[in-house]
Design brief:
Oligomer: heterodimer
Largest interface: A-B, 57 and 57 residues
Largest sheet of chain A: 2 strands, antiparallel
Low-confidence stretches of chain B: 17-26
Order of helices and strands of chain B: HHHHEEEEEHHHHHHHHHHEEHHHHHHH
Order of helices and strands of chain A: HHHHHHHEEEHHHHEHHHHH
Helix content of chain B: 55-70%
Strand order of the largest sheet of chain A: 1-4
Number of strands of chain B: 7
Number of helices of chain A: 16
Low-confidence stretches of chain A: 1-6, 365-372, 376-390
């Protein structure tokens, strides 16, 4: 797909020479080791991290991976997806289906095959699309495949006909909205309104045990680190340079002979797969997946994490996701009235005063080392004449 | 017993018919004489008196018989004068039945009720029904004719024929015709009955369907004819249900148009998506609520106050947003999208804090409730009709503003080529602010309309914003006709899909359709052509 003729560096070399990347990976590794260790301390210790907090932090790491996937397409390719929550939720549903199958006959109704909600709806047999999910390996494949295929079909249609800018944002929002309506229906066979819940165990281990919780946390950290390295490698490669060219001037990149839609499609599908993985890790840690995850506002929230952290940095997205969600966890409990004011204000303030996010405040040296950040606003007149395109 | 009453009824009606066939003013004396006979004790005398009153043709006949039926007709014990009474505590207020003269108040013992039995009641019912067919008020005549149709009795045939001859009002005539045909399906030779069924065929009156349904249960040729008549009725019903779906679709389209047209203007002129547009709808609806709270005694007129109020409130919010935030973000449409989304969250939470998270009751004025019944298969609700008309008016005004005012001219210029418009001396900043104010104000008006259709709560805007986007994306920007066509198409398609798939799936299908459609026409149905459209 990418014709690289010059400056091809082996990936290993690229990784070794990337100090910023190493710092980020080291930080994630530190968290991955430290949190489970602190969890092992006796509960009366000042540094003890309770098990519920481990899952909470694990949730943040999943959000961080999700934000990373959005930054990959928005920060580097200029695709503002307002429907990335859909890929996240689909990954979550795939994992949820596996976990439902693991319940076996321990459900409330004790049916040997059917999950509780199907018994409740008087279904007599398992729908065909539920086959195979008792296998963990199959589930792992589907976690990547289901969001990836949807992104491929959607992106292939959209990018080929050059749907860009706000139009693309709106139809991605329509996509997740349509999926939300669909998953709310009982007939879909995904638990309708209530979604999938009441999970018992994963890989034969009790989901509620501390060990599994820590394990899931570490798995989330590993996934985040791996996702970060992958995105880092891609964005620092020649492919990444083309992506940035597409972001800054799509027509010019096309006229230079690049097949813009192929690049966009590749990065969009990859991003969707990352979001699916994030969703799959999220579900066992929160214990439920329901159609509310498809709600358009969730997808928009992801975008604001990235915007707050700073797009086009990758680690900015990670920072933004963790920071905003920490604030959310605190505010929704302490001042539930304030949370939406805060979130709304965050949207406005970030776009007005921090166009490059928090990471844009860092000193110049560090930024020049990473990928070139968001371009400065173009001359107003030129863009105004252009109308709806970014 | 039943048979007997039927006979009596028949007798009275025959007498009545012949009586009416004679000259109507058969003399007031005979009428007054008949009324006087009501004070007699014998029921058969009274029955004859009722028949005489009915045929007398006197204009007071109906009120006498109605009062008799209602049990308010008395006679004074001393002079046997027939009086109309109103009970007041233990006393009666008397009015002379014949002269209308007030006779003062008397104690209960001074008067005696004109008693009736079941036989007389049956006779009275027939007589009153027949008299109503000749009442002066066409509405009364129509009601009487409808009653004849829904409860056909063979005995009423002559009186119906007589009424039909005299009738001049068209709707009463057709109702009488139906009633007559309904009667004829039961009597006469088979050929005559079949002819009567054929006359009823295709009627959209539910009472006729009942008559036909009763006939169709049989085995003979008449029943077969009735079944084929019912088939015609069924096919007409299908046609009317199609029309009804179309009506629903258009009214949904009107709502979508009201919600989306402001968005289309701002998007067209400035190339930015206002995610807070849905909240403008919500604020418009809340303005209606507040206005109704302020004028609780004049709910009928509240909407006429709410419309300009909502326009001003949301328009000012829109201008403030444009001046405060959107202006700063020009050239960065995606950031504008995010910032306006932030505003929408703030506005939602503000409404939750100020009012409550619960839905607020907005009252529908009386003149908007109820429905207009076209026929048995199709009735149109007034609120939906009002919305359609209102939407078209708003749309027409908007088209006029764009076509005929300097602001409209400048808006169109800026839409087509901002840089060129600017260099021609158009103050693009001012145009932007006005456009945003106009677009938001229209959304506020749309909110007033929505408050009559759906629940008014903090999430009202969210429910419509995605649909509005779909309309704009489908119709194309910078062209109001595109928005009109887009809104109507989506509304009608949605409503036509619903019977087959259910509301939710219909909506999903429409969304999928638009996602696919935009692949073919990335700039919508009515895209702007020329250099400006190339981004």
């Amino acid at each position: 797909m990418v014709s690289v003729t010059t400056s091809r560096r082996p990936i290993v070399v690229a990784l070794v020479s990337d100090t910023t990347g190493q710092i980020v990976v080291a930080a994630i590794a530190l968290v991955a080791i430290l949190v489970p260790l602190l969890n092992q301390l006796p509960p009366d210790s000042a540094l003890h991290v309770p098990t519920y907090a481990v899952s909470l932090f694990g949730k943040y790491l999943c959000y961080a991976l999700l934000a990373l996937s959005v930054d990959l397409i928005w920060g580097y390719c200029g695709i503002l997806s307002l429907g990335h929550g859909a890929f996240f939720a689909l990954g979550g549903y795939v994992m949820g289906m596996h976990l439902m199958r693991q319940i076996g006959d321990r459900g409330v109704y004790g049916h040997p095959v059917l999950p509780d909600f199907m018994v409740f709806l008087n279904w007599s047999e398992l729908p065909w699309y539920w086959y195979g999910f008792d296998s963990f390996a199959f589930t792992l494949v589907m976690i990547v495949l289901v969001p990836g295929l949807l992104a491929f079909a959607f992106g292939w249609l959209a990018f080929r006909s050059r749907v860009t800018g706000v139009y693309l944002s709106i139809i991605t929002q329509a996509m997740t909205y349509a999926l939300m309506l669909a998953f709310f229906r009982n007939d879909m066979g995904f638990g309708g309104n209530n979604g999938l819940t009441d999970f018992k165990d994963i890989l034969g281990l009790d989901l509620r045990s501390g060990a599994v919780r820590n394990g899931l946390f570490v798995a989330s950290a590993v996934a985040l680190a791996a996702g970060f390295v992958l995105c880092r490698v891609i964005t620092r490669s020649r492919l990444g340079k083309v992506l940035i060219a597409v972001r800054d001037s799509e027509s010019r990149a096309r006229f230079l002979g690049y097949r813009v839609e192929a690049y966009k499609l590749f990065v969009f599908v990859l991003s969707a797969a990352l979001a699916g993985i994030a969703g799959a890790l999220y579900v066992p840690q929160v214990g439920i997946i329901n159609p509310g995850e498809f709600a358009p506002i969730n997808s928009i929230e992801i975008v604001i994490w990235v915007a707050v952290g700073g797009r086009g940095y990758l680690y900015g997205a990670i920072f933004g996701a963790v920071a905003v969600n920490l604030a959310k966890s605190y505010l929704t409990v302490a001042f539930p009235e304030i949370w939406l004011f805060f979130l709304g204000g965050l949207f406005v303030a970030t776009t007005l005063f921090l166009p490059r996010g928090v990471m844009g405040l860092l000193p110049e040296r560090q930024r020049s080392e990473s990928a070139p950040a968001v371009p400065p606003p173009l001359q107003p007149a030129a863009v105004r004449a252009g109308g709806g395109d970014d | 017993m039943f048979f007997l009453t039927r006979i009596c009824l028949f007798l009275s009606v025959v007498v009545l018919a012949t009586g009416l066939a004679m000259s109507p003013g058969a003399s007031a004396a005979s009428f007054e004489d008949a009324v006087a006979r009501l004070s007699e004790k014998s029921f058969s005398v009274k029955e004859q008196a009722i028949a005489d009153i009915t045929v007398s043709g006197d204009e007071r006949a109906l009120s006498v018989l109605t009062a008799l039926n209602d049990g308010t007709l008395y006679f004074r014990r001393d002079d046997k004068r027939i009086v109309f009474t109103v009970k007041q505590g233990r006393e009666f207020v008397l009015t002379d039945m014949l002269s209308g003269e007030a006779l003062g108040t008397v104690r209960r013992r001074a008067v005696r009720k004109v008693s009736i039995n079941n036989r007389l009641r049956a006779a009275l019912k027939g007589a009153i029904g027949s008299l109503r067919l000749f009442a002066d008020d066409p509405g009364t005549r129509l009601t009487a004719a409808r009653a004849m149709l829904s409860n056909p009795t063979a005995d009423a045939l002559p009186i119906l024929q007589r009424a039909l001859e005299r009738e001049e009002a068209e709707d009463v005539r057709s109702m009488l015709g139906l009633a007559l045909s309904a009667l004829k399906t039961e009597i006469g030779s088979e050929a005559e009955r079949i002819e009567a069924v054929q006359a009823l065929s295709g009627s959209m009156n539910p009472d006729v369907w009942q008559v036909l349904g009763r006939l169709a249960a049989g085995e003979d040729a008449v029943a077969a004819e009735a079944r084929s008549a019912l088939e015609i009725v069924e096919s007409r019903k299908r046609l009317f249900s199609l029309l009804e779906t179309l009506f629903f679709g258009i009214s949904l389209g009107a709502v979508l148009l009201l919600a989306a047209v402001g968005l289309a203007i701002t998007f067209g002129v400035m190339g930015v998506i206002n995610m807070a547009h849905g909240e403008m709808l919500m604020i418009g609806a809340y303005t209606t609520f507040v206005v109704q709270q302020l004028m609780p005694n004049a709910i009928e007129y509240s909407l006429f106050v709410a419309i300009p109020a909502a326009f001003i409130v949301t328009g000012l919010i829109g201008i403030a947003m444009e001046r405060g935030i959107i202006r700063v973000l020009y050239g960065r449409p995606l950031e504008t999208l995010l910032a306006t989304f932030g505003i929408s969250l703030i506005l939602q939470q503000a409404v939750r804090t100020i009012f409550s998270p619960l839905n607020q009751p907005v009252i529908t004025p009386d003149w908007m409730s109820g429905f207009y019944e076209v026929n048995g298969a199709l009735s149109l609700t007034y609120n939906r009709m009002c919305i359609i008309v209102f939407c078209l008016v708003v749309f027409a005004v908007l088209v006029m503003i764009l076509r005929m005012t300097p602001l409209g001219l400048q808006m169109r210029a800026v839409t087509q080529n901002r840089a060129m418009a600017s260099s021609m001396g158009i103050n693009t900043g001012w145009v932007d602010a006005m456009t945003f104010g106009l677009g938001s104000g229209i959304a506020g008006i749309g909110g007033v309309a929505l408050s009559q259709l759906t629940n008014v709560g903090p999430n009202l805007g969210q429910a419509y914003i995605i649909d509005s986007f779909m309309v704009v994306v489908f119709g194309g920007v910078g062209n109001l006709w595109g928005t009109l066509v887009g809104a109507m198409t989506l509304g009608v398609v949605n409503k036509f899909l619903e019977p087959f798939t259910g509301a939710v799936v219909a909506k999903i299908l429409v969304l999928v359709f638009i996602i696919l459609f935009i692949q073919r026409r990335p700039r919508g149905l009515f895209a702007l052509k020329g250099r400006a459209a190339e981004a």
